[in-house]
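Record type: monomer structure entry
Structure origin: computed from sequence
Chain ID: A
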Amino acid sequence: MAVNWTKEQLEAITLRGSNILVAAAAGSGKTAVLVERIIRMICDAENPVPVDRLLVLTFTEAAASEMKRKIAAAIEERLADDPENRRLREQSILVHSAHISTVHAFCKNILQNMIHKTNLPIDFTMLSEAESAMLRKEALDEVLEQYYQRIGKKDAFRALALGYGGTKSDEGLRSVVLRLHSYVQSLAYPAKWLHRAAAQYQIAARQGTIDGTIWEELLLSLGRELVTDMHDGLVRIAEIVENEVPSDHKYFAYYKNLLSDFETVYAPVLSGAAGLSVLKRCREVFVIPRAPVKTGLMEETVRKINAAKEQLVTGVQKELGALLDAAAPERLIRIFLCKDRIMVLKQLVRQTERLYLKKKRECSGLDFGDLEHEMLRLLSDAKGRPTAAAMSLRNRFDEILVDEYQDTNDIQDTIFNMLSKDNRNIFMVGDLKQSIYRFRNADPGIFAEKYARYRRGDGGVCIRLFKNFRSRREVVDSVNSIFASIMTKQTGGLDYTEEEYLIPGAVYAENAGDFTTEVLLTDADKNHYDPDSPYAAMEIPRLEAITVAKRIRKMVDSKELMVTDKKTNALRPVRLGDITVLVRTKANVAEIARTLAEYDIPSISEVGQKYLDSVEVLTVLSFLEIIGNPRQDIPLLAVLRSPIFAFTPDELAKIRIADGRRGCFYDALCAASEAENPRVSYFLESLSMLRGMAVRCGVDELIWKICHDLHYMALAGAMPNGRVRQANLNLLYEHGAAFEQGAMRGLFQFMLYIDQLRSQNQDMKAAAAFADEENTVSIMTIHKSKGLEYPVVILCGMDRQFNERDTAAAVLWHKNSGIAMDYIDTKLRIRYKSLAKQITREQMLRDSRAEEMRLFYVALTRAKEKLILSAPVGTFYDAWKKAIPANGQKPAPGILRRQKSTRDWTLTALLAHPDGGILREIADCAAVQPPESMQAAFSMSLYRPDGAETPQRRTAATAAEQTSEKEYDAAALSRFSYEYPHKGLCKTPVKLSISELKRRVVPEEEYVPNLLRYTMPRLAEHMEIGAAERGTITHYVMQHLDLQKTASVTQIEDQLHAMTARGLLYENQARAVSAAQIFRFFESELGKRLVRSAHVEREFDFYMQVPAKTIEKGLSAEDGEEKVLLQGIADCFFYEDDGVVLIDYKTDYITEDEASARAAYYKTQIAYYAEGLESVLECPVKERYLYFLNCSQAVAV
């Protein structure tokens, strides 16, 4: 069927001989244009281009596969019309081997084919993210170890470690180095960027000013922007005064004069001609005089003037003052003092990269960043000139076509340019408004720069596709109205003018329902609800979820909308499967899904239990753990209790008791097997068989044996959601097989890989849930929805505050401003803000806001027929209420830039809308003339969950017998109003450890040791193992030491070596234990008493009961007497003639002077240990000691 291409589409399809940037808005058919361009190039009668001479690049494997499928289908369609065309037949064969792939896949293919021109190992394999992270961490550990060994000679590193590493460890510093390393790898020339960033500090320190540095340029740019915001605010106030204040009132003359004075003083800045010194002088000269008395003016007028003045004049003036004050000479010294620290940080990153590269080469591994950097090295020499390989590849490809170009980063764009023939054959398709992968280091500035330049005719041609073939006019008009009001160059990186408007191009049937965009407002003001109502105690996400659930239920039950069926193209009533709920993050997905279920609305989401935490996967991973080392009680018991062997708790308890509770549980199993327990024998035989296989087989084969030979696959299938569980097990097998194909192989490495994933809070991809697509609502994040479309879209969670955590880090960086940190005086422990960090933080915030704006655009443009925006109102951070609308004007960019949620952006834009009466009522402001861009119709309603239908499970019976709404409400309120009589105990645990009880009874105040007291060897000694892990290892050693062989440091070291040889400790763990500290304990009087004792117990676990009132305050008298099981593990105690002596070892970093104060913190814990032991042993605990190994001090408590 012939396609009626638009003029712009046809131009994008046919234009040749130049670089072309296609700015393709959402739903404009960019993929179809790209495919058609390729087909026409292949089939061109005069200048045909073979498909294998085209390089087509996308950013996901799925997109590449789909692109290849569409091109192959288009060729087959042409071939069906002309079956004798030999050229088309040839192309139909070549398309399957054509260069249509992701950027990484293309780079890998070229590097493998030109391996002789690189320094790469010929058999290189790709590392997974977790494998890469492991090697990067190892590299950093070794680099830091070298620095710690010389910390006394490296003052800058010492300051960096103490000031930016963290209070209890150096995790902060490690995180900075690893994240900075990751960022610079997205740049074409990481070393040059690092050098340029450090050079700014050298220049500033050498000349004593920031003149000529990037900070001067950025400070001036930010200052001009703030001055423009102030001018905008004063102009708006002047218009309000002009329209609403009598000309003889003092307010009239005051604000007219204020605007005139501002424009006079700041004229050089507003014209763009002023430098930094002029800006500073203007700020000093301009002073806002005291405002006159407001008597005689309407309250509404005064409120509007004050709101505009607060947000855009006085508030902005303070921001400008703070920024310029930071540039005062006496404060610039903070930048100069950071120079050496920045230089050390640069060295850490560079040395980590070199060592990381060495480790990758040792295992013949490459990460994805290597593919790009090695490709660039292949294509260009040290001076950036094309190599012979680059010239060869340029001749191989007639055109380079790049999809989703807005997601390109610096190094990828450099590669494209190096491959381009005379820089005239790159065809780029994308949409700046849909660039949402900044967290993957995508740089939308690359697209923006070309967009502006090509539109001027400089370097290429820009073709704009803005006709939308996806959405109904109502959706398109809503998107245009909202973004014309809120998206500007300052807020979104682009001015959303009429040139950027989406143009309706989709054809839908009329009279199929009301498709007006809805703004669904949930009343979240707790003061509006009866205090005794269950709704008053509900969290905001819950209230909003109820609103959304009821709207969905009503939409489907009433059949109010007739949507177009995707398969038949005919109208039919909307179904649950047509509806998608979009959210910004995964945080509230579970709440939405749970609430939908209460209204009998099935849903499916990407968010649920983590794959690695699913029972079936945990069981197999536990099995793999004990195959590696069966002397691990927790995974061993997990396998025994699993359906594979199905031991009951009673059976396991008997096995443990029969062994006399000596040794680990594996020893107890061996004893039970010798006692001819057939089930235990079967388990041990199975385990032995698998342990034997592990020596010669891959981890995938072990997983296969567990699942099939031991029948776990069948058992999992019989469990609830069996199909999903079986799919998860199959996926685990595939993950294992993929791992064995990588650079790191074997069971031990695989378990390290799993541990790495967990430590980084990462997960593997889980199997998709099986659901009825026609009758299931989808819930997904906006990022996941990119490239998809849905008949009905409901956007939830718009009140979520933008995430600014990245800008609060100790060290920041930005492509433009370089690396920045505050100056920290490590002796006085005082942090001083630096201008460099303030500028960098502002750059990051603006980039973050722009990304949020683009995410919002992506969300709204997913809707085909109906768009619903859900937003709670009445919360304490309703910033949109302060955005007083002005006649015929869009919201001020300065206000939008300072707002912190998409809800605030949206409602600020709609305050002036003719349909926004309910918003103006909430915000207590008057109606104004809307801006010309606000033409779309919106349906706005305020919803109170307590005044509408409440959750009710729907069945066939209840559907036939409809209960009235009032009966629903009464029944629901009755259930919701019930109060559990013992609700105080709901927060009280049934079982608790003594350590946790100590933290509850004595709130922990963070103990920050004075690190300056510790010498370099002490710091370096334990850098390989964290403080918590070192404490655990030390306790383990103290438990297993032979007390009769502790007469010297050598004897203790010999025991540590023996534990390592027996596999009880790893070598790095043994190194983390100080034999000298342990020896000093046994040399003390307390240690000598311990050795002399005839009866010593170590790591003795016991249980006791305590009243619940000990755990939880505020319980009733009855509840307070309930018993809580308290578990404790005593490090060590020994018997003497008149009682027991209790010892608790501590590995805290403290000095002798601090020991007594620190011991007081543990007093409650030791008291419970003593009470528990006296109860169990029926013997008095006569003495209790805390022994601090680090400072060799015993403190009686």
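Annotation 1: The mean pLDDT is 86.
Annotation 2: The chain has 51 helices and 29 strands.
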